[in-house]
Amino acid sequence: MMTIPFGAQLIGRTEKALNALLDQALQGTGLTEPQWVALTLTATRTPTAAATSDDAAFASEPVVPGASLAPEHTPPMASRIGGPGSNPEVVGQFPADLIARIAEALRVGEPAARERLAELAGAGLVHTTSGGAVEPTERGLALWQDVRAQVMRLTDKLWGDVPEADRAAAGRVLNVVLARAGALLS
Questions:
Q1: Which residues of 96-117 are buried (b: 16+ CB within 10 A; e: fewer)?
Q2: pLDDT digits (tens, 9 = 90+) for 130-174
Q3: What are the residue boundaries of the structural domains of the chain, listed by start?
Q4: Which of 52, 72, 124, 139 suits 12 as a labelling partner, its CA being 20 to 30 A distant?
Q5: If 0-12 CB within 10 Å is exposed, 13-18 middle and 19+ buried, where does residue 151 land?
Q6: Backbone torsion region of residue 3, taken as left when φ is above 0, otherwise alpha when ψ lies between -120 and 50, otherwise beta
Q7: Prediction pTM value
Q8: Within 13 Å, how many C-alpha atoms sit on residue 90's CB side?
Q9: Whole-angstrom distance, CA of residue 91 vs CA of residue 106
């Protein structure tokens, strides 16, 4: 494999490789990458998920390809969205801070972020509590924890042996690039 100098091509190719791993891992779960991001941001926002400060950063991290995480008798979520059991009236009932976080992470408008949460709610993966908070359901949390465990195994394989100083330097550079890209998109 040839060494690609730091720049847009390296960042783009890295992102595409990581997304390809995520897409493979999400096969059979019924989740799309945007839904995975929304589920992660919902799960890491609640105390029940035992979230770490890195969880939001790993919202769209790749995972190791594996067996389906969806129950055998349950059709993929994408085939159920908008079908029986979905509740389109729930769309406007989500906390503004969660909608904003999802919209920012996905680089979409707030209506699209609300749609991702509505899809998760319709699939029984998140619910709104009586206090107005959005939390994963037991099934949603189990799915998130299974995929998240795969993410942790994969990230350890990808950069677990890279020296901490190198990871810190890469993190600083990529955060600068991300902030500048965000400013250009605003």
A1: eebbebbbebbeeeeeebbbbb
A2: 888 899 999 999 999 999 888 888 888 989 999 999 999 999 999
A3: 25-159
A4: 52
A5: buried
A6: beta
A7: 0.73
A8: 22
A9: 17
